[in-house]
Amino acid sequence: MKNFAFYNPVKILFGKGQIANIAAEIPADAKILITYGGGSIKANGVYDQVKSALAGRNVFEFGGIEPNPHLETLLKAVELIRKEGIDFLLAVGGGSVVDGTKFIAAAVFFEGDPWDILAKNAPVTAALPFGAVLTLPATGSEMNDGSVVTKWETKDKLFFASSQVFPRFSVLDPETTYSLPPRQIGNGIVDAYTHVMEQYLTYPANAPLQDRMAESILKTLIEEGPKTLANPQDYDARANLVWSATMALNGLIGAGVPQDWTTHMIGHELTALHGLDHAQTLAVVLPSTLTIRRDRKWQKLLQYAERVWGIVDGDQEQRVNDAIAKTRNFFESVGVRTRLSDYGVGLDSIPAIIKNLEKHGMTALGEYEDVNPQVVEQILALCA
Amino acid sequence: MKNFAFYNPVKILFGKGQIANIAAEIPADAKILITYGGGSIKANGVYDQVKSALAGRNVFEFGGIEPNPHLETLLKAVELIRKEGIDFLLAVGGGSVVDGTKFIAAAVFFEGDPWDILAKNAPVTAALPFGAVLTLPATGSEMNDGSVVTKWETKDKLFFASSQVFPRFSVLDPETTYSLPPRQIGNGIVDAYTHVMEQYLTYPANAPLQDRMAESILKTLIEEGPKTLANPQDYDARANLVWSATMALNGLIGAGVPQDWTTHMIGHELTALHGLDHAQTLAVVLPSTLTIRRDRKWQKLLQYAERVWGIVDGDQEQRVNDAIAKTRNFFESVGVRTRLSDYGVGLDSIPAIIKNLEKHGMTALGEYEDVNPQVVEQILALCA
């Protein structure tokens, strides 16, 4: 096992009706800004629950945060906060709203151009406190300190992390996710699944507990994902998806083990350049990454085949192939297509993707830091 | 899944050499009190590492905290803290030192008799901040907010919990545990294993991720426990035991599921009255609890048999029996005896144990709160 530091102070309020408890988590005299997305929270009752929980409080609103939140939009919230003297944020929505709110929280106190937090890894030394009411199980942002923001003007989709931007609390009420369309549930399943794979499918590090916990999440997603798609109002199935997505990226399964993240880095460029949903890019890239990197990941692929998919027959080659095929089939089975051609993206797009990765310094990806532009080209060629 | 709140802000510093990093976790101007036990930290080099990490800091010491820490001893530390104006504690030792330090931290600010925190569930509204350097993998106290203290005068061993007494940080360096005698390693394995069983072996709650995570810890303990006993300086085996023991009781596997704790409550009285090690009481009581409560735990016993022990042959009755027998054999195999007679305790001791449980209000134990004194008597009779 590798040395590690683990720290995650996010308070989770999980279950039916938990929105009613948020007032106790926010200072009584706070000037609160509710941040949200396209307005679905007004259609599905979540907005009303939040307003009711915060009755009598000093509440402002900022809507319109996009999927893959735009720097340009988020900076408008920063202006509003400074103008009104707001001192607590409440993100109500999915991972994009939570990610965007993390950036807003950090940008408020940042001196200089806040885009430097992502473009130049400028350190975040302070941030506004905030909580989250999560309405889409997928990104894990509700229980970690990472955030992905897109500069729309230049199509740069970049990541930052800082212990300053852990949510103070996150409400996870599975019922608030009942109204999500199947596409978003399928995306959430693929996103959570891939988060686990990035931290698990590398090389053996003699960390059996982390391995088994990762496999636990994968097996639960395989079991509960289809159930919750088939019956969106099955409370337990949805609750298990929600908790799995959170556990997939709260730092625990990645503690003390090598991590990959090749698929995510390539995926970010695909979203920035071609507008695919984040999870769609992962469903396309992950099977190809596993295939091209099979020699480097051999032992873990065999373990994955046996423990997650129960594949024990055939020679090693065959088991590895089967495991990758089953991964692809699972993504397809939850409604997320796994070929670039499914999204109208041709192989002629590869040079621009690689150029963007180079621009962002992503030229030595993966658990061995040896996924260079040539390897990325091979991976993308296989995504056709 | 049940509703739950999860909150655990303990920062974990895991791995070789991490003691060197504690200075950065403690305010520079703090008056620090190092709390410890019988002095083994002076023999095994941990004390020197801590002193070296805190060179130039204002450091006081308080040694002599016993296994099953005594109220009477801990109150002397409280006196010292008040006299010297100490404002940060550093527990260096095993679970008893950490538990004792939690009580000290809470007692310093408590108005009235601090024993009321345990005897009367008096609320803890403030506590001194503290960190921990863990030298014995077992109790999980290094990453939770619970503590068990014994009032020696009256032989009362009681529990309290408060979010005020989470450690600010805990150092888990597996190398600091190399010098532990086999008895303490065996005890640690049994303690961690039983912590998992108390949160897992109840009734199905449709929480498959929590189940699988619990099974992950059990399987890792079964696999790595004997390895680390056979070769105490196998770094990875010891690291896996240490991390498993911490994960067994940091709140995660118990979130959203029913919990039992019958075995622990009976065990506490056995330690208080007869001086058995904590883990010895668990090794004695758990197999009997599972046997007497088999009907109430039937479904989970079958799941445990299959997933943890690979028992799939035979009828249900046989599988349940096998799983309980394997549990007992595992405890014996790591050197912890599982019969009251192994410790010279006869069945004539049962009435006093039950009387003590009644005195402490423990008359409706277990996940159904139906383990009354009559059921406890049956369990203890089977422990002979």
From TrEMBL, chains A, B:
It holds the Pfam family ADH_Fe_C. SUPFAM superfamilies: Dehydroquinate synthase-like. Gene3D superfamilies: 3.40.50.1970, Dehydroquinate synthase-like - alpha domain. GO terms for molecular function: alcohol dehydrogenase (NADP+) activity; butanol dehydrogenase (NAD+) activity; metal ion binding; methylglyoxal reductase (NADPH) (acetol producing) activity. Residues 9-174 form the Alcohol dehydrogenase iron-type/glycerol dehydrogenase GldA domain. PROSITE patterns: ADH_IRON_2. GO terms for cellular component: cytosol. It comes from the Bacteria. Residues 189-380 form the Fe-containing alcohol dehydrogenase-like C-terminal domain. Keywords: Oxidoreductase. PANTHER family: ALCOHOL DEHYDROGENASE YQHD. This is Fe-dependent oxidoreductase, alcohol dehydrogenase. It comes from Cylindrospermum stagnale PCC 7417.
